[in-house]
Amino acid sequence: MNEISSINNPEIKLLRLLFQKSRERKKHKRFVIEGEREILKAIRGKYKFESFYVYKGSETHFSSLLINMFSTRINLVKPSVFEQLSIRSGSEKVIAVAHSKTHELKNLNVSEKSLILVAEAPEKPGNIGALYRTAAAAKIDAVIIANPKTDFYNPNSIRSSLGSVFLLPTAMAPSEKVISFLNDKGFNIVTAAINKNAIRYDLFDYKTPCALVMGTESSGLDDLWIKNTNQNIIIPMDKTIDSLNLSVSAGILMYEAKRKNNLLK
């Protein structure tokens, strides 16, 4: 294992940039994962790793995690240096650098029984993470991010999802291409939108293959989705409330769709 004792080490400088800058993550096609739980989920998601940074003195705790990382650089980092890197004040004591995936729509595997979630233009990393955590809990088959506005590998998305972003097949593309993809695959497109043709979410059958399409909390869905939907659905709310949190709304719809398809176990 290599030992790093200076914040001016070139690897540490790059690591800090990967933590802080979306453009650096995209440039290097790498991103940062902090925390053992999140790293284990990335391993389950078949991500490839470039390097590990372990809080010096904690290497024994992570021996089972690192033992099979034969081709991955493992660095022991001086505590004072590690704490300057960590967005969790060093509490997790392990950081990994992994290779980004491409997330191309054409590579997304779906079937006639697929139930997927489409999120249009989610902006807040915390919301994206919460959305993935809910979707993973509901065992949704895949997620598509239409018109992406935020770097998928933002450390705050990873943190708020507890690593669930690594567990679900994900594609990203403009809404026009997503709609074309869904139509080509015979998907039942279901949009969460308030209009005169909307029905209560619990009155719909969610016949698969089914895509549940969610817009932003602030502005909802683009009209393009409304024009191409098979059904608009609404979640009844008290008249004093104008919207629900994105992950809460998505969770209600995902579990209802699973229930209607007898998929809750």
Given this structure, which CATH class of the largest domain is correct? Alpha Beta
Shape: elongated
Unreliable sequence segments = none
User: What percent of residues adopt helix (DSSP H or I)?
Assistant: 25-40%
What is the β-strand count? 12
The biggest sheet amounts to: 7 strands, parallel
* Whole-number total of structural domains: 2
Secondary-structure element series: EHHEHEHEHEEHEHEHEEEHEH
Query: Structural class, judged by helices and strands?
Result: alpha/beta
Strand content: 15-25%
Mean pLDDT: 93
CATH superfamily of the largest domain: SPOUT methyltransferase, trefoil knot domain
How far apart the termini lie comes to 45 Å
- And the CATH topology of the largest domain? Alpha/beta knot
Integer-rounded radius of gyration: 20 Å
Question: Which CATH architecture of the largest domain would you pick?
Answer: 3-Layer(aba) Sandwich
Read across the widest sheet, the strand sequence of neighbours is 8-7-6-11-9-12-10
DSSP summary: helix tally: 10
Structure description:
This protein has two domains: 2-99, 60s Ribosomal Protein L30, Chain: A (2-Layer Sandwich); 105-260, Alpha/beta knot (3-Layer(aba) Sandwich). It has 265 residues and is of the alpha/beta class. Helix 6 links the parallel strand 6 (115-120) and strand 7. The chain starts with a strand and ends in a 5-residue tail after the last helix. The chain is 33% helix and 22% strand.
Write the layout of secondary structure elements.
Elements: E1 2-4, H1 10-20, H2 22-28, E2 30-34, H3 36-44, E3 49-55, H4 63-66, E4 73-77, H5 79-85, E5 94-99, E6 115-120, H6 125-137, E7 142-146, H7 155-161, E8 170-173, H8 175-184, E9 188-192, E10 199-200, E11 210-214, H9 223-227, E12 231-234, H10 246-260
Parallel strand pairs: 1-4, 3-4, 6-7, 6-11, 7-8, 9-11, 9-12, 10-12
Antiparallel strand pairs: 2-5, 3-5
Helix pairs in contact: 6-7, 6-10
